[in-house]
Amino acid sequence: MSDSTVTKKDTTEKTDLKSLTREELADFCSELDLQSFRGDQIYKWLYEKGVSGFEEMTNLSKDLRSRLEEIAEVNRIELVRRQESSDGTIKFLFEIKGGYHMESVLIPDFDDDGYAKRLTVCVSSQVGCVFGCSFCATGKMGHFRNLSHGEIVDQVQYLDEVAREKFDKGVTNIVYMGMGEPLHNYDAVMESTAIISDPETLNISPKRITVSTVGLTKQIKQLADERQPFNLAVSLHAADDEKRDEIMPINKSLNLENLKDALTHYFERLHKPVTFEYLLFNQFNDTPEDAEKLSTIAHWIPSKVNIIMYNNVEGVELKRAQESRLDQFLSILTDNDVTATVRRSRGEDIDAGCGQLAVKEGEKGKSIAD
Ligand code: SF4
Predict the structure, then answer these.
(1) d(CA 210, CA 208)
(2) CA 196 to chain centre
């Protein structure tokens, strides 16, 4: 795709208010000689009320609204398609500035009475991804651009509205496991978690926010040094360097020894356990030997292991493991005192597995500006 194509719709020079941090918004207002509380007022309109234009900011004077209209804009992600799975999972395809497409998923967990006890939103942080993991549909797209923090918060706001309408309850949990590697878009992801957990906006506790990473060690250490309060999940998916090199190219430059070092630093600073995500692939990483190696890794620092039954992706050789191999694998982890849970992939009929949101070959063209 040529540069002229990717920037086709980026012709405006107006300031995108949702790409500014709260402090930058305050600076923007002070440059316009506005009183200091105006920045806070606009912040609340953007993130507490989720407005999509200045006309809705009714506590700003008409004059100020028209002035802002001339020099700034409020972008909102736009729904392109919505697909609902038979298990209640809903996948949303959004268009963002520049004509790019990205996806988010709303995953309800129901109690025995059919009431949604937990509503998890899986958000994207980038359009595409540079890391090219062999099992991942997003990795096959290449990388187009990072999302702004506003575009990440928009996903949560949009799905929160849907959740309230459909399930009578707002979103309860956020996982950064959609398209992209969250720690490769560090600043926007950090800003978005701060906004989402802000009591003045969506007020979702950091304890209910999980950011995943393929193992970017510098950024893991940075999270620790900044004392970021949310949960960290590490996409491990193989328990030795040889197999991990095969399916996750990042491992060739940041191997398991590097990861161990970063996670040790993380735990020493934050005293917080991490979750190891482990997609179980048939006859690849599901042997007793793999389970033993995974047990060793799980004891590097306090952690739990989340075994994920893979949503098969078209064109990917690795396939979901058999149930019998899962049982054997789990019992070895348990015998080794590893806390392990199994996550069944959700929304398989709509290709909605988080971290492997399917961008089918035939749909690629729709995922970029045309
Ligand atoms: S699994 Fe994550 S890091 Fe790997 S290619 Fe997919 S989106 Fe990127």
Answers:
(1) 7
(2) 13
Query: What CATH number should be reported for the domain holding residue 29?
Result: 1.10.150.530
At 140, is the pLDDT very low, low, confident or very high (cuts 50, 70, 90)? Answer: confident
Q: Say if residue 107 is in the same domain as residue 24.
A: no
Domain extent at residue 261:
78-367
Please state, in angstroms and rounded to a whole number, the distance separating the CA atoms of residues 89 and 119.
10
Taking the CA atoms of 300, 179, 197 and 202 in sequence, report the sign of the dihedral they define.
Answer: negative
Q: Is 178 in the pocket of ligand 1 (CB under 6 A)?
A: no
The residues, ordered by sequence, that sit 6+ positions from 246 with a Cβ below 8 Å of its Cβ are: 134, 238
Residue 96 has pLDDT above 50, yes or no: yes
Query: At 254, which amino acid appears?
Result: L
Contact 103, 94 (CB under 8 A): yes
* Triad 228, 230, 232: Cα angle to 5°: 100
Task: Tell me the best of 138, 179, 248, 316 to mutate to test the pocket of ligand 1, counting ligand atoms within 8 Å of each CB and taking the most.
Answer: 138
pLDDT reported for residue 354 = 45
> What is the share, in percent, of the chain residues with pLDDT greater than 70?
91
Instruction: Give the closest residue (by CA) to ligand 1 atom 4.
Output: 133
Q: What is the pTM of this model?
A: 0.91
Ligand 1 atom 7: residue of nearest CA: 180
CA distance 49 to 57: 9
Pairing label, strands 90-96, 78-84: antiparallel
CATH code for the domain in which residue 136 is found: 3.20.20.70
**Are the C-beta atoms of residues 167 and 119 closer than 8 Å to each other?**
yes
Q: How far is the CA of 26 from the centre of ligand 1 (A)?
A: 35
